[in-house]
């Protein structure tokens, strides 16, 4: 996480060899990115770009998803299976024969995601996946990311959507001016006002509320609405009990 | 006085089968700050395009009903005439700036109107100062950050001195702090200059505190239209899939458990003050 | 890319930047004419070096050097073709004179590029379009010109990001035979064209919303006025042209080869 221009996208581009380090090295699943082509790294690292319009070009959604699979040299049979699987996974089966250009923005984003997930990369990088998405789409995306993660995929999300991150509660790396300024659990990093400010972000709304309630003995490190509710109710009941 | 009014507005894009917006009846008074929100594809953007005559003059299609802006029926007046009354700011700052300096960009509309040169200079300087980008006057728009670009876009419609400014998701490409400061500036235009603001937003958490009215759309229709404190109390908001600000959600959750904070909070500051109020009154 | 860098406008202030684009344009034309007038090495060398003070005055040394480096490939090409053709068809007395002639021809090309560079690096596209407008070119054309320049960096960035996105899906541009390689660019070109169309729609919307076409008599925020220094600049250019014409027709110019032989 970090402000626009903090270096987030530049950093993750190193993970797939689109950029190579001037100094130092990047190891992806044990492979030094200097010794591998982007295509080789892409087998392991799926990179979904911010703007789906920068990759869609096929006549049908089906073809769009098959594109990468062909590049990687899968057999026709496997391609068919994988396309079916990816269409189903992202709820796009009914658009199989539709042109991707006819779909809405949210759907195009899903096609882009499907076209990357199709080859089942070990690591998934999503660049600003929540931009332009409404609440329902974000909620779906969140469930989807968590599900993929539980299936054992490493997921890296680049974003400045702090409320989205607060709901996912992942490990958070904060960046500012091209450097990493914090790396830790969301609950630790996002509730530290100094760090968050340094990264030109704002703490999540609920955290802001609890920072202001600190005088009443509430904990500061609160992210979600449900724990917030529990804490307030406990406080009130505890006092009523006395 | 109503500055904007739609009567039985229904619009279908060319080659589309179904209308994008249906039966919209809306009256907006001078000086209001109105937020329009709703899920993707609900017709928000289409409605914005109706306000300055892009629909029907630019898009064609089939327009039924009427849109009256500052006393002008959009059907009978060309876009350039309506542009003097309604300024439209778009989502993507990159695609609404065309000149090579900020100053030329802000002057663009005024040059088109054929105003005298001194008048243009005066208005451009004024608009640049009001939006806080006077120092960027000679810079190239594409060198600026997203937030600065969006300020240029706002300045360039402001220079035409419209009564209404319509902003279509102006913060969606911006990081939270830039978004917050843009929204504050928009609020300032509303409060200090009395400009009517119509803001289309997904990010209710940052925007809602400035609005006096929230309109929620779904599937081309207006579903709810109320003050921000009232509108979120309606159970339909959740069903439509509008993202409630976290502070409102916490307020609603507490209310379910009979802890009533008195009114719907619109910012973290307000919520913590309300909670403090309850905690203190409970003590006594 | 580096070649175009040398033609890119540098937004700084210098005496050369402040000269009216029309005056500068006349100067470039005259420079062109002189370069074509002479085919001997010595006057072309003088012409080439006489530009350097201007480059220094305009503070565009780095761009100029980059451009010189960028033109090396074409310069070498011109030199070699000249050498070959002169050797076989020229009837020149010695190898030295063939080389001299070829260098002169190459230099002529470099001078043309050099003068272009000075013009574009010191003339803001805004000013250029303004002068076109004042010379009677319709505003629509000038606007299209400005917009094109405005969007070059944006499109370049977009092309890069499309290329990255497709490479991340396993596209290898350098793979396969000639036909395959051309086909490899389809996944890059289509998104580029599609987003350009989307972008132009959005631009058109924004233009319409800002009263495009409202009045037949559009005001321009700035107007260009030729000043004393501009007329002075044009006068000097014309004097140089006249002098060159005189030298060209009435003065015998020795070749370098002759100088070496008799010197």
Textual characterization of the structure:
The complex is a heterotrimer of chains A (242), B (284) and C (263). With 242 residues, chain A is α/β, with parallel strands linked by helices. Helices cover 45% and strands 13% of the residues of chain A. Chain A has helices at residues 8-14, 38-44, 61-71, 76-89, 105-117, 135-150, 162-168, 186-189, 193-198, 205-212, 225-241, and strands at residues 27-28, 31-32, 45-48, 123-127, 154-158, 171-176, 179-185. Chain A has a three-stranded parallel β-sheet with strand order 3-4-5, sandwiched between helices. Chain B is of the alpha/beta class and 284 residues long. Helix content of chain B is 40%, strand content 21%. Chain B has helices at 44-51, 54-58, 79-82, 102-113, 117-130, 146-158, 176-193, 204-207, 228-231, 236-240, 246-256, 268-283, and strands at 2-12, 21-29, 33-37, 62-69, 72-73, 86-89, 164-168, 196-200, 213-218, 221-226. In chain B, strand 7 (164-168), helix 7 (176-193) and strand 8 form a beta-alpha-beta unit. In chain B, helix 4 packs parallel to helix 6 and helix 5 (117-130) packs across helix 6 (146-158). The model of chain B has no long low-confidence stretch (mean pLDDT 93). The mean pLDDT of chain C is 87. Chain C is built from twelve helices and no strands. At the A-B interface, helix 6, helix 10 and helix 11 of A face helix 7, helix 11 and helix 12 of B.
């Amino acid at each position: 996480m970090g402000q626009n221009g903090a270096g987030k996208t530049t950093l993750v581009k190193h993970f797939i060899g689109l950029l190579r380090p001037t100094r130092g090295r990047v190891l992806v699943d044990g492979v030094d990115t200097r010794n591998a082509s982007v295509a080789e790294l892409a087998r392991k690292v799926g990179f979904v770009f911010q703007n789906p319009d920068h990759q869609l070009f096929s006549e049908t959604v089906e073809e769009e998803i098959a594109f990468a699979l062909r590049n990687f040299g899968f057999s026709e049979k496997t391609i068919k299976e994988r396309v079916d699987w990816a269409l189903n996974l992202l709820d796009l089966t009914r658009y199989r024969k539709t042109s991707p250009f006819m779909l809405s923005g949210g759907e195009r984003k899903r096609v882009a995601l499907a076209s990357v997930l199709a080859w089942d990369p070990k690591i998934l990088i999503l660049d600003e996946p929540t931009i332009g998405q409404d609440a329902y789409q974000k909620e779906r995306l969140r469930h989807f990311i968590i599900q993929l993660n539980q299936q054992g995929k490493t997921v890296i999300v680049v974003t400045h959507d702090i409320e989205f991150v607060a709901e996912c509660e992942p490990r958070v790396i904060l960046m500012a001016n091209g450097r990493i300024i914090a790396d830790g659990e969301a609950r630790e990093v996002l509730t530290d006002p100094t760090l968050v400010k340094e990264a030109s972000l704002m703490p999540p709304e609920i955290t802001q509320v609890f920072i202001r309630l600190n005088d009443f003995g509430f904990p500061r490190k609160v992210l979600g609405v449900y724990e917030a509710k529990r804490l307030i109710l406990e406080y009130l009941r505890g006092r009523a009990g006395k | 006085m109503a500055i904007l009014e739609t009567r039985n507005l229904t619009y279908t894009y060319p080659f589309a089968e179904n209308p994008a917006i249906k039966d919209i009846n809306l009256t907006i008074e001078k000086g209001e700050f109105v937020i329009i929100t709703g899920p993707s594809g609900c017709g928000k953007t289409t409605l914005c395009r109706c306000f300055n005559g892009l629909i029907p003059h630019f898009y064609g299609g089939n327009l039924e009903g009427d849109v009256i802006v500052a006393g002008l029926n959009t059907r009978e007046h060309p876009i350039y005439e309506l542009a003097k009354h309604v300024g439209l700011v778009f989502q993507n700052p990159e695609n609404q700036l065309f000149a090579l300096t900020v100053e030329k960009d802000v002057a663009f509309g005024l040059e088109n109107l054929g105003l005298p040169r001194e008048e243009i200079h005066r208005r451009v300087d004024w608009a640049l100062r009001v939006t806080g980008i006077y120092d960027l006057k000679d810079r190239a728009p594409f060198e600026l950050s997203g937030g600065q670009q969006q300020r240029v876009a706002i300045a360039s419609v402001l220079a035409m001195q419209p009564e209404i400014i319509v902003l279509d998701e102006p913060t969606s490409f911006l990081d939270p702090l830039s978004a917050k400061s843009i929204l504050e500036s928009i609020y300032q235009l509303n409060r200090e200059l009395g400009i009517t603001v119509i803001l289309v937003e997904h990010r209710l958490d940052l925007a809602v505190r400035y609005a006096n009215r929230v309109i929620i759309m779904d599937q081309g229709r207006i579903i709810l239209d109320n003050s921000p404190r009232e509108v979120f109390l309606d159970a339909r908001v959740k069903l439509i899939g509008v993202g409630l600000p976290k502070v409102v959600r916490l307020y609603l959750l507490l209310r379910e458990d009979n802890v009533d904070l008195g009114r719907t909070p619109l910012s973290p500051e307000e919520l913590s003050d309300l909670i403090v109020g309850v905690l203190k009154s409970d003590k006594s | 890319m580096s070649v175009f860098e040398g033609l890119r406008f540098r937004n700084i202030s210098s005496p050369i930047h402040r000269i009216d684009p029309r005056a500068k344009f006349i100067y470039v034309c005259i420079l062109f004419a002189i370069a074509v007038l002479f085919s001997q090495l010595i006057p072309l060398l003088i012409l080439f070096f006489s530009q350097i003070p201007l480059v220094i005055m305009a503070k565009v040394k780095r761009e100029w050097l980059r451009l010189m480096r960028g033109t090396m490939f074409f310069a070498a090409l011109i030199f070699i073709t000249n050498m070959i053709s002169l050797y076989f068809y020229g009837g020149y007395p010695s190898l030295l004179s063939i080389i001299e002639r070829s260098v002169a021809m190459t230099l002529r090309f470099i001078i043309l590029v050099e003068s272009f560079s000075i013009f574009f690096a010191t003339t803001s596209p805004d000013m250029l379009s303004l002068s076109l407008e004042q010379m009677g070119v319709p505003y629509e054309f000038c606007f299209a010109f400005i917009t094109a320049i405005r969007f070059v960096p944006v499109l370049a960035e977009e092309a890069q990001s499309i290329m990255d996105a497709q490479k991340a899906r396993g596209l290898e541009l350098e793979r396969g035979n000639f036909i395959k390689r051309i086909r490899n660019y389809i996944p890059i070109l289509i998104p580029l064209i599609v987003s350009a169309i989307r972008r132009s729609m959005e631009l058109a919307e924004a233009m319409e919303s800002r009263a495009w076409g409202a009045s037949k008599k559009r005001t321009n925020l700035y107007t260009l006025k030729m000043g004393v220094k501009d007329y002075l600049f044009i006068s000097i250019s014309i004097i140089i042209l006249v002098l060159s014409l005189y030298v060209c027709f009435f003065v015998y110019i020795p070749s370098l080869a002759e100088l070496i032989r008799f010197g």
